Amino acid sequence: MKEKAIVFFSRNGSTRLAAKIIAEKIDADLIELKEQKAKLGFLVSGFRASMKKHVTPAGDPWGQIRGHSTVVFGAPIWAGSGNPVMNGFLDKAELSGKKVYLFTVQADPGKGKSDEVLAYYSQRVKGAGGTVAGAFSLTGASPGKTAEEAALRESLSGWDLLK
Ligand SMILES: Cc1cc2nc3c(=O)[nH]c(=O)nc-3n(C[C@H](O)[C@H](O)[C@H](O)COP(=O)(O)O)c2cc1C
Q1: I need a surface site. Which of 50, 57, 120, 153 has the fewest CB within 10 A?
Q2: What is the residue with the minimal CA distance to atom 17 of ligand 1?
Q3: pLDDT at 68 over 90
Q4: Which atom of ligand 1 lies at the shortest distance from residue 46's CA?
Q5: What is the mean pLDDT of residues 37-54?
Q6: CA 117 from chain center: how many Å?
Q7: Which protein residue's CA is at the shortest distance from atom 8 of ligand 1?
Q8: Is the pLDDT of residue 38 over 90?
Q9: Are 113 and 77 in contact, with CB atoms under 8 Å apart?
Q10: Rounded to whole angstroms, how far apart are CA atoms 21 and 23?
């Protein structure tokens, strides 16, 4: 087990690709959050995200980060809100003594709502006993598409965490 872990949710691959790039740079384990049930369609997923719903991820990702001192959480923005699966993960996260970095991925090149979503996650991390050490917002791709790796690498090179 490595000292650092990246916990992420991704439906169309952009957040997964960003997580892999970060993992390679900071030498971290990758932990993917999965939906327990078959995925809902775009409109229902967006509506539920806008209602701040929480979806409990499958398996035991909480146990998987027990031994990591630094964790990075990444999720796509849905309907201008945090992702329901990341919300569900944070419900049961025990982050005492952990240093936490956050990132969001979204279609909008202007990164609208990313400040609000990152502030919401920061508050939840603090509530779970963690210390937020940094946050970053990325542009991924339009719904259903996956971002180009080169574009993600270029954007991520601007994050202190990777320098
Ligand atoms: C249900 C749903 C709602 C979305 N809402 C937004 C949004 O409000 N703003 C935005 O910029 N992108 C939005 N997107 C686009 C995703 O954030 C974008 O495609 C991102 O790259 C997806 O990451 P992923 O490939 O890791 O799943 C939405 C995508 C889905 C599926």
Answers
A1: 50
A2: 106
A3: yes
A4: 1
A5: 92
A6: 11
A7: 79
A8: no
A9: yes
A10: 5
Confidence of residue 154 (pLDDT cuts 50, 70, 90): very high
Mean residue pLDDT across the chain: 97
Question: How far is the centre of ligand 1, averaged over its atoms, from the C-alpha of 158 (Å)?
Answer: 21
Amino acid at the residue 21 = I
Fold of 4-162: Rossmann fold (3.40.50)
Between the CA of residue 84 and those of 19, 47, 142, 162, 163, what are the distances in Å?
Answer: 18, 11, 19, 27, 30
Beta strands in 3-130 (DSSP E): 4-8, 28-32, 70-76, 99-106
Start-to-end CA distance of the chain, whole Å, equals: 23
Kindly list the protein residues whose Cβ atom lies closer than 6 A to any atom of ligand 1. 10-16, 42, 45-46, 76-80, 105-108, 140-143, 146-147
Cβ-based neighbours of 146, under 8 Å, separated by 6 or more: 12, 13, 14, 17, 140
Domain boundaries, the chain: 4-162
pTM confidence score: 0.97
How far, in Å, is the centroid of ligand 1 from the Cα of 102? 17
What digits encode the pLDDT tens for the residues 72-127?
A: 999 999 999 999 999 999 999 999 999 999 999 999 999 999 999 999 999 999 99
Q: Which residues contact 85 (CB under 8 A, 6 or more apart)?
A: 9, 33, 34, 35, 55, 57, 75
Q: What is the predicted pLDDT for the residue at 6?
A: 98
